[in-house]
Amino acid sequence: MKKRLCLLTALILSLSSVGCVNQIKARMAIKEANEAYQKEDYKTALAGYTRAKSIDARFPDLDRMIGYSQIGLYVPDDKSQENEKHADAAIQALSNYLKMRPEDRIARDALINMYLNANRTSQAIDFFRAYLETHPGDLEAVKSIATLYAKQGNFNESLLWYEKITLLDSRNPESYYIYGVVCYEKVSKNPPADPAEKISIITKGQAALQKAIQMKPDYFESMAYLNLLYRQQALIETDPAKQQALIAEADKIRNQAVDIIRKKKAAAAGQKS
Questions:
Q1: What is the pLDDT of residues 145-168, one digit of tens each?
Q2: Which residues of the chain have pLDDT under 50?
Q3: CATH of region 26-119
Q4: How far apart are the first and last CA of the chain?
Q5: pLDDT at 102
Q6: DSSP characters for 74-107?
Q7: How far is CA 165 from CA 16, 71, 129, 178, in A?
Q8: Closest to 117 in 3D by CA, of 91, 138, 135
Q9: Is 93 helix (H, G, I), strand (E, B) or coil?
Q10: What is the reported pLDDT for 87?
């Protein structure tokens, strides 16, 4: 019995020793890889981090550094198969890392930039939507999805997500301003065929901009876009009297914005003198 215990103890010590040796080897590989990465020698750095992971995969930052090295090797606008492999590997490594460290915003930004540089907007959207399932109140993630849908040219989805921003960031007048601007962009550059739908978007945009002005009375940028939305509404109004009333309201708001700008310039000039 004692002999068996001694053998078991010897085996445990032997395994522990092997573990320590592997850990030392992995650390040495990481050190060499870090030095290469600092010199922007991403190929050597990648080889070092990959070797360290094969020796001892318990270092949580290895996936992150492998991903960063792959990003360093990726060349934007190069559609070659080899270059696309760098994009795939970077995305895979950073995705693995973020499963363990979801709060690392720097790594998350690196992943999103990789998606965008590789023209994989849909994948970036899928990533954020999955992330929001466990972090539903993350304002930056919602903003990212709204921006990504706009970049994709999907204005309808983009509008929905910009509206969600006003709900999550309801005390910030800029959130309402941005939503109002997006509504204007939609009706002026990519208007829906249905006039009723266009009016609905205009009305939502006007309400958002009015909310921004209510929160920040000198918000002349919001006034400028509110003026433009009233003019868009006038374009589809069939009643001449109502059309003129809308134009008059637009002129009034525009003049208020101009007056605020004039006063701000005068105040700034007075401070300089």
A1: 999 999 888 988 999 999 999 999
A2: 1-18
A3: 1.25.40.10
A4: 96
A5: 85
A6: --TT---HHHHHHHHHHHHHHHHHHHH-TT-HHH
A7: 52, 30, 14, 9
A8: 91
A9: helix
A10: 95
In 3D space, the residue among 103, 94, 35 whose CA is nearest the CA of residue 67 turns out to be 94
Tokens of 103: 């709060």
Calculate the alpha carbon distances from 233 to 32, 134, 169, 196 in Å.
64, 40, 27, 11
Outline which parts of the chain fall under CATH 1.25.40.10. 26-119
Q: What residue type is 268 in one-letter code? A: A
- Residue 238's pLDDT is 93
Quick: pLDDT tens for 203-252. 999 999 999 999 999 999 999 999 999 999 999 999 999 999 999 999 99
d(CA 139, CA 152): 20
Q: pLDDT at position 13, please? A: 40
Q: For 46-83, b where at least 16 C-beta lie within 10 A, e where not — what string?
A: bbbbbbbbebbeebeebbbbbbbbbbbbbeeeeeeeeb
Tokens describing residue 196: 């009723």
3-state SS track over 20-77: HHHHHHHHHHHHHHHHHHHCCCHHHHHHHHHHHHHHCCCCCCHHHHHHHHHHHHCCCC
Q: Give the span between the Cα atoms of 80 and 86, in whole angstroms.
A: 10
Assess if CATH 1.10.287 describes domain 171-268.
no
DSSP tag of 239: -
Q: How many residues would you count in the chain?
A: 273
